Amino acid sequence: MPERLPLLPEDWDRALCVAAHPDDIEYGAASAVARWTAMGKTVTYLLATRGEAGIDAIPPEQAAPMREQEERNGAARVGVDVVEFLDYTDGVVELTLALRRDIARVIRRHRPEIMVTGAFDVRGAGGRFSNQADHRAVGLAALDAARDAGNRWIFPELLDEGLQPWGGVRFVAVVGSDRPSHGVDVTGEPLARGITSLEAHAEYTSGLGGAAFDVAPFLTWFANSSGPAIGVEAAVLFDLYRLIPDGPMPWMEATS
């Protein structure tokens, strides 16, 4: 049997989830969010776009407000009250300094201790298909912005806005990675609430046409497939990037 992955640390109070599109967080991570909000933690969502290019049959100007509302509805089902949008253009998001600055601005305002974002590998989860360009740009920008937010000399214009540096992001948890390092137990109620969160995106999922699917069996299968990695029935797996050392570093131990 392969060695079990450790549990993702939960000794924190505030989280920020950063994603490219409405529904990205709901494909698994929302179940972990449901667990955390039930524990009394504060979770905030930040979306780079409004997902306006996601439905072929609906023009972007009509799809944007619809998808925004579906995201707010889905977030509410897992206990998230604050959902913010950066208004980048869906489908053509680039990894730029402006994107890093805009995410760093939100980090400084909300001061999270953990951030959650999507995988930024070229290959998607499972390695069977390519990862979408917006996902790659936003995921890597979020990882970089977690450090940027703590350095007053990076994006000094944020100081002019009254936003002091925040270096308290301990780690960035990346969902959908081919190389997960930690897991969160979402057995039972968290998974059930995560399913309802994705179900709130009914207009979007129905607009997928032949690619549409039944939400509950899909998310249940995915969570149950991940559960054995941490020895539970259902789990969400993350690749954890630490920004603040957890305990003494190896060279410190070697010289002590």
Indicate the percent of residues in helices.
25-40%
Choose one word for the global shape: globular
Q: Which architecture per CATH? A: 3-Layer(aba) Sandwich
Uncertain regions: pLDDT < 50 for 5+ in a row?
none
**SSE run:** EHEHEHEHHEEHHHEH
Give the radius of gyration: 18 Å
Number of domains: 1
What is the level 1 CATH name?
Answer: Alpha Beta
The whole-number mean of residue pLDDT values reads 92
Largest sheet: 7 strands, mixed
- Span between N and C termini? 36 Å
Structure description:
- The protein is an alpha/beta fold and 256 residues long.
- It has one domain: LmbE-like (Rossmann fold, 3-Layer(aba) Sandwich).
- The chain has nine helices and seven strands; from the N terminus they run E-H-E-H-E-H-E-H-H-E-E-H-H-H-E-H.
- Strands 3-2-1-4-5-7-6 form a seven-stranded mixed sheet, sandwiched between helices.
- Helix 1 links the parallel strand 1 (14-19) and strand 2 (42-47).
- The longest helix has 18 residues, at 60-77.
- The protein starts with 13 loop residues before the first strand and ends with a helix.
Features:
7 strands; Rossmann fold; 256 residues; seven-stranded mixed sheet; globular; alpha/beta
